[in-house]
Write a structure and sequence with these properties.
The structure is a single chain. The chain has 369 residues and is an alpha/beta fold. The protein is globular and about 70 Å long. The structure holds S-adenosylmethionine. The site of S-adenosylmethionine has 21 residues, from helix 7.
Length: 369
């Protein structure tokens, strides 16, 4: 049995918990931005393939209450690094410290590195460089309330890096957040789904992957594939199982549009990469055009809120409020940090909760019928 943990953005822990439970594992603990479970090494493939809302899957190598750097050093030295990390594979040490005596991130990193180097007597070329993350294995030292966990990354690139994203512009929404929004919205697949500010299409592509039950990690590589202690047959089995679970014979009414023709073109390219070119209807359209047609189903969208996008935000949000008044049966899920949104919409009918888009604090406004 190993202790596993998935990291995620704040406030989506319950969704990650559900993902772990859907893979038939029992969650042992949930903390702010961390969800834990226990299982053998077959668990890595499943969650790396299937987690839509998580950031990375880690193996917990050690944990202990620590109050000084000597204790950190000893904790790291107690780990059998030669077993867990392939010989001469460079590693990088990242650290998080919350409400703890050991505050300095650079010091935590350098003490940790020293302790690992003392154990790993392999060549000294095996020097760790934070900026070369692609080929390195990440060790995460996570200290909260003086409780330290040493975590080994099994994912490599963060899980939100899906295979289909060809370009990213300013203000894209993270794929894991887009998937979280769709799951929170409880969009019923037989009803229409609309994103009238689709940009590169992240929300609707994620919705489509969810509806078709396509594992978001199917088309990528993971660090754990290089671990000698990992039984590779588990990954092969998990991929075969994931392929067999894809729903191929259903049609969905997914509409997405954006005023910016270039963005619509990028969305089209992402759609082709995401294998959904046959089913998707993307248009270049001003959100105002929806004022003339009745809308039903669910809207999940990330309307513009950056002044530098050079659009009249007030005008756009007034259109949203008109659409809202004219389509009383629509489920609304809008994520924005637009500061005047509360004034424009009638808040009695709406609920709001905090979420992070990248490092930016946003609000998710929801109105469910
Ligand atoms: C914050 S972005 C959406 C990001 C998107 N969810 C993603 O990451 O893939 C907002 C989008 O609204 C579009 N937009 C701005 N004004 C618009 C309007 N009047 N009608 C429709 N789309 C508009 C912009 O072109 C931009 O693509």
């Amino acid at each position: 049995m190993y202790n596993w943990v998935i990291t995620c953005i704040a406030w989506v822990e319950s969704l990650v918990k559900k993902e772990i439970e859907m893979a038939w594992y029992k969650v042992t603990e949930t903390e702010d931005r961390l969800v834990f479970w226990q299982w053998d090494d077959s668990a890595i493939a499943k969650l790396n393939l299937w987690s839509r809302c998580g950031n990375k899957v880690y193996l917990e190598l050690a944990k202990k209450r620590i109050t000084n750097f000597d204790m950190l050093f000893d904790l790291i030295k107690s780990i059998d690094w030669k077993h867990y990390v392939p010989e001469n594979n460079p590693i990088t040490v990242n650290a998080v410290s919350v409400k703890s005596g050991l505050e300095s991130i650079p010091s935590i990193q350098s003490v940790s590195k020293k302790a690992i180097v003392e154990i790993k007597t392999w060549s000294r070329n095996w020097i760790m460089k934070e900026e070369q993350k692609l080929t390195e294995i990440e060790i995460l030292v996570f200290i909260k309330d003086d409780f330290c966990r040493i975590l080994l990354d099994t994912s490599w690139n963060a899980l939100h890096k899906r295979w289909y994203r060809s370009e990213s512009w300013e203000a894209p929404i993270k794929e894991s957040l887009a998937a979280s929004l769709v799951l929170l919205s409880s969009w019923r697949f037989w009803e229409p789904l609309l994103d009238p500010f689709c940009w590169s299409g992240t929300i609707v592509i994620e919705a489509w992957l969810i509806a078709r039950n396509i594992a978001p990690g199917l088309n990528r590589s993971f660090t754990f594939e290089n671990f000698s202690w990992y039984n590779k047959k588990y990954l092969e089995q998990a991929k075969i199982e994931a392929q067999s679970k894809i729903i191929r014979d259903k049609q969905y009414t997914i509409t997405w549009s954006d005023i910016d023709e270039n963005m619509v073109e990028i969305a089209r390219r992402n759609v082709i990469k995401a294998w959904l070119k046959d089913t998707i209807k993307i248009e270049t359209k001003d959100v105002k055009e929806y004022l003339d047609v009745p809308l039903t189903g669910t809207i999940v969208s990330n309307p513009p809120y950056w002044i530098r996008l050079r659009v009249d935000l007030n005008d756009i949000y007034k259109t949203i409020s008109l659409l809202f008044l004219r389509n009383k049966t629509l489920n609304w899920w809008l994520i924005t940090s637009y500061f005047d949104f509360d004034k424009i919409i009638k808040m009695d009918d709406w609920k709001k909760r905090k979420l992070y888009n990248w490092n930016e604090m946003c609000y998710l406004y929801k109105k469910k019928v």
